[in-house]
Every structure is written in C-alpha cells, then in structure tokens.
Amino acid sequence: MSTRITGPEIERLIQLLARLPGLGPRSARRAGLHLIRKKETLLVPLAGAMAEAAAKIVECGTCGNIDVSNPCAICADTRREDGLICVVEDVSDLWAMERAVAVRGRYHVLGGVLSALDGVGPEELNIARLITRAAAPQVSEIVLAMNATVDGQATAHYIMDRCEHLDIRVTRLAHGVPVGGELDYLDEGTLAAAMKSRREL
C-alpha cells in the first residue's frame, strides 16, 4: 500500500504543470518544488499574474490574436497597412513575426493546420473568417506564413484554392524557412529574409 507523500494541493500543482508543453512528470515536480521553495517571491506573484491573465485576456474577434482588448492592439493600430494580411498557424507564430519586425500589415491566426490524422478540417480553423477578410476591397495581398511541414503546406494550398476567385496576390514565405521548421523557433533574421523574398504561389 502506497502512502501519500504530499498534500492534494501540491499534487494538483504538479499535475497541472505536467500538462505544459515540454514538461514531463519529473520536470513538473522539479518546477513545482522550485515554486514552493520560492513561495513569496515567485509562486504568489505568479498565481496573481495567472489569475489576472485568465480574467482579462481575450481572443481578438478580427484576427484571432490574444490581448486584453478586442480588437487587439495590432488590429487597432492605424499605422499598419490594411492591404496585406499575413496568415499564421498560431499566436506564437504571430509573435515571432512581430519580433522580426517583418510585417507592417495585418495578421490572421488560423488556430492550427488541416490534419486528417488529427481530425482537423477547415471548419475547425479560422479559414472562413480569413476568406471574408480577404474579400474586403482594401486587401491586395495574402501572405501564407505557414510552417514548412506537410500539414502546413497542405493548409497553404487549401487557402490558395479558396482565394482563387479573389483579385488579390497570394504569396508564401520563401524557402529560407527550413522544411520541418517552426516559426517560433527561428531567428529574427531568417524570418525577415523569408518575408522579403516571398513569391507568388
């Protein structure tokens, strides 16, 4: 018969930490112990920040970015070009493009990629909203900044087909983005160069 080593609150903390990407049970236990040891300087402020984030963060109804306002700061920025929409898979990809200062236009977050294996179809992604935005008279170009994976490229081709009837340019990032690479892990120089050398599909 096994005996409980810690209280249920600590176990719950460790179990929740283990759900984070890159953290297994052992890493979650180490992280949990570190937080508990630094309770006043780390755990309490972190808990407060997470509670505040959970209460205030919303998804932008226009582009799918996350922010504390709707529309988000990027969509509300009047200095940006309305004619260009950069399409990314996830919010982390949007942030990567922003760090590289590669896009001065607008964004559209799909919320994933098409994947028959995972049962993700067009209805599960923000593709319909993208096509509606792309049809606006001020839009002249859609940049497909998808990850260079099989599913990412399949999603790009699907969007390209859906945009065929529109009088806009459809471009994609140059192949400076390595095959199998993910935007969030690339350096700013590579992203900026890939954006500058985009081409017609």
Describe the 3D structure.
- This protein is α/β, with parallel strands linked by helices and 201 residues long.
- It has 2 domains: 8-56, RecR Domain 1 (Helicase, Ruva Protein, domain 3); 66-200, Dna Topoisomerase Vi A Subunit, Chain: A, domain 2 (3-Layer(aba) Sandwich), CATH 3.40.1360.
- The protein contains 8 helices and 7 strands, in the order αααββαβαβαβαβαβ.
- It has helices at residues 8-17, 25-37, 39-56, 73-76, 91-99, 127-134, 150-162, 188-196; strands at 58-59, 66-67, 84-88, 106-109, 141-144, 169-172, 199-200.
- The strands form 2 sheets. Strands 4-3-5-6-7 form a 5-stranded mixed β-sheet. A two-stranded antiparallel ribbon has the order 1-2.
- Helix 7 links the parallel strand 5 and strand 6.
- Helix 1 packs across helix 2.
Q: Briefly, what is this?
A:
By secondary structure, this protein is α/β, with parallel strands linked by helices. The protein contains eight helices and seven strands; from the N terminus they run H-H-H-E-E-H-E-H-E-H-E-H-E-H-E. The longest helix is centred in the first third of the chain and has 18 residues, at 39-56.
CATH topology of the largest domain: Dna Topoisomerase Vi A Subunit, Chain: A, domain 2
Side by side, the strands of the main sheet go 4-3-5-6-7
- The whole-number mean of residue pLDDT values reads 90
What is the succession of H and E elements?
HHHEEHEHEHEHEHE
Rg computed from alpha carbons, rounded to a whole number of angstroms: 20 Å
Number of domains: 2
Shape category: elongated
Specify the structural class. alpha/beta
Low-confidence stretches: none
Annotated CATH architecture of the largest domain: 3-Layer(aba) Sandwich
